[in-house]
Structures are given as C-alpha cells and as structure tokens.
C-alpha cells in the first residue's frame, strides 16, 4: 500500500513497485485516516507512508495501525530528515525510514528487506537516530512551553494558555535550555526546529 498526499509522487512509487515481477500495489490513499481504513480492508504485506499527511499524521497512522496490527510492516518515505522525525517514526513502529530522493534500487531493497521481517535504516538515518536517543527527552509540559516559544509568545502568554504561573514557565524554560544545550529563547527555538522537535506550519 502506498500512502502519500502528492498524487504525482504516489503514482511514481506505484509505477516503480508495479514494474517488479513479484510486487503489486493493493491500495493507495492520500491521508492518514484513510490509510488506517485501507489497511484494515486489504492487510498489505508492506506499507509505504509519508509522515506529513492531511488530518492524521503519518506517525499517528502508524501508531494506530501497529496497535491493531502489531505485525504490520511500514516504511516511512519522506522529505523530513530531522532527528526527532526519525525518532518518532521508528518509535511508532516503522521498520524503515527512506528519503524521497532515495534511488529506485534503494526503495525496492527496503521493501524486500522489510517484507522479510528485517529493519532498513540507511547509515545517515541510523546515526541521526543514535544522536536523538542520546539527547534528554522533553516532558509533555516542556513541549507545550517550547511550542509557545516557537509561536513567538511571551512568558505571560504561554502561562495564560497553559493555566500556569509565569514563575512556573520560567522554571520550565531553565530546564529546556539545559536539555537543549542553549542559552536563550532564540537558541531554543532554532535548535528545536533544526532537530525537528517542533514544526512551524
């Protein structure tokens, strides 16, 4: 099954897969919710899924599918090469992580490897994942504060939106700066965006 919200790219993947003598595409769709429904219907051997999808994200769709079908074999194929995107995808149960500029041979090899029950992580992806695993994890509240920073909100505005005091926000910021190894708010936002911890729409 192929899941991507760009029809041209989706059709290219389908054509590549269909060109293989022992492969066939049993379903295709362009959003996460539909991917879950299609998976239930056709139970594909391997699913190729983008991360950034309308409605339900690729990671959310993977989590839903893997919860219902733990044996589901899913390959992420995306333009996102940020550490946190790779970590979230792998943590959600994806068996492989490919970039959209991957060669035809690499895509086919990844499909065959995952179909055989093994993982496929290119060296670049594996090293990024290793770096991400070494970095201290942010709590849910710290993520909320960081997202507020990324949106340009003041401490007072962040405190009001989270129903917390400004002093509590300042405490969270101190912890954030230590975990992200930065000195100030600007550094925190730049680091968070560079590593894919937050995405600005």
Entry summary:
Helices cover 56% and strands 8% of the residues. The protein is of the alpha/beta class. It folds into 2 domains: 2-133, Response regulator (Rossmann fold); 140-194, Arc Repressor Mutant, subunit A (Orthogonal Bundle), CATH 1.10.10.10.
CATH architecture tag of the largest domain: 3-Layer(aba) Sandwich
Fraction in helix = 55-70%
Strand order of the largest sheet: 2-1-3-4-5
- In CATH, the topology of the largest domain is named Rossmann fold
What do we call the CATH homologous superfamily of the largest domain? Response regulator
Strand content: 5-15%
Low-confidence stretches: none
Distance between the termini: 27 Å
**Average pLDDT:** 85
Main β-sheet, in a few words?
5 strands, parallel
- What is the level 1 CATH name of the largest domain? Alpha Beta
Q: Give the helix/strand class.
A: alpha/beta
Please work out how many helical segments DSSP would assign: 10
Task: Write down the overall geometry.
Answer: elongated
Number of strands: 5
